[in-house]
Amino acid sequence: GEDVEQSLFLSVREGDSSVINCTYTDSSSTYLYWYKQEPGAGLQLLTYIFSNMDMKQDQRLTVLLNKKDKHLSLRIADTQTGDSAIYFCAEMWDAGNMLTFGGGTRLMVKP
Amino acid sequence: EAQVTQNPRYLITVTGKKLTVTCSQNMNHEYMSWYRQDPGLGLRQIYYSMNVEVTDKGDVPEGYKVSRKEKRNFPLILESPSPNQTSLYFCASSAGLADSYEQYFGPGTRLTVT
Questions:
Q1: Other beta carbons within 10 Å of B71
Q2: Residue pLDDT, tens place only, B2-31
Q3: A103 and B31: CB-CB below 8 Å?
Q4: Residue B67 confidence class, pLDDT cut points 50, 70, 90
Q5: Alpha-carbon distance B42 to nearest alpha carbon in chain A (angstroms)
Q6: What is the per-residue pLDDT across B38-54, written as a single tens digit (0 to 9) for each?
Q7: Phi and psi dihedrals of A60, rounded to 5?
Q8: Minimal CA–CA distance to A24: which of A57, A52, A61, A51?
C-alpha cells in the first residue's frame, strides 16, 4: 500500500533554517500536505502543494516537491523556539478522499 | 468559531466495555474521518464518511464502528475495546474533495484500555 516516510528527529539552533524531508510511494498523489502538531494539541495544517507544482513559498515556509524522486521537503527559515513541534507530511491520492500520513518528525529548536 | 470538537478528551476503560467517542463539526462539512495516532506510525485512517449515511473503511477499521446519521456528527464506537486500541484518536472534517482540501482536526481523545 501507500507509504510515507520521514526521519524521526531534527534539532536546529534558533535562527537557523530547518529542512524536514519526506518520501512517498504513490505516484498518483494529488495533494501533499504539511501539518504541525504542538504538544497536547491536534494537527494544524501549515501548507500544501498540488502535485503539478515544484515549489510553494508561504512566508517562512518553503515546500519543495520532486515528483520524479517522490520527495517532499519543508524548509522553515529563521526557525524559532515556537516552531518546536512534530511535523507530519501527508499525501492525498486518487483513490478517494484519504490522507496517508508519515510517522512525523520531531523538531527541537535550541535557543 | 469554526471547529471540530471531540468528547471525551481523555478516557481510561477496561477491556470489553463498549465506548463511544463523539465528534461534531460546525462548518457544514460533508466529509468527516477518524484517525488514530501511534508513536512512529503517524496517523492512520480508521473510517471516513463522504456524507450522511455514507461511510467507508480506512486503513485500520478492525474493532471500530462509525455512524453518520447527521451531517455534523460522526461518532466512533468501540464495541469491545482491547488494549491494542490504546491510542490517540483524532476526528477531522473537510468540505469535501471538490471544494476544499484542508482537513480540520479536533483536539484529540487519548484512550487507554486496560
A1: 16
A2: 789 999 999 999 999 999 999 999 999 988
A3: no
A4: very high
A5: 4
A6: 887 888 999 999 889 99
A7: -80, -5
A8: A51
> Cell triple for residue A41?
494539541
Q: Which one, of A70, A52, A54, A56, lies nearest residue A2 by Cα?
A: A70
Coil/strand/helix, residue A83:
helix
Share of chain A above pLDDT 90, in %: 54
Of A8, A99, A104, the CB nearest to B103: A99
Residues of chain A with pLDDT under 70: 1-2, 93-98
Cβ-defined contact of A41 to B107 (cutoff 8 Å): yes
Rounded to the nearest 5 degrees, what angle is found at the Cα of B44, between the Cα atoms of B50 and A43?
Answer: 85
Give residue B99's pLDDT. Answer: 40
Confidence check: pLDDT of B100 > 60:
no
* DSSP, residue by residue, chain B: ---EEEE-SEEEE-TT--EEEEEEESS--SEEEEEEEETTTEEEEEEEEEETTEEEE-S--TT-EE--SSSSB--EEESS--GGG-EEEEEEEESBTTTB-PPEE---EEEEE-
CA distance B36 to B60: 9
Q: What is the pLDDT of residue A82?
A: 94
Q: How far apart are CA A41 and CA A55, in angstroms?
A: 28
Grid cell, residue B50, equals 463522504
Q: Within an 8 Å CB–CB cutoff, is residue A53 touching chain B?
A: no
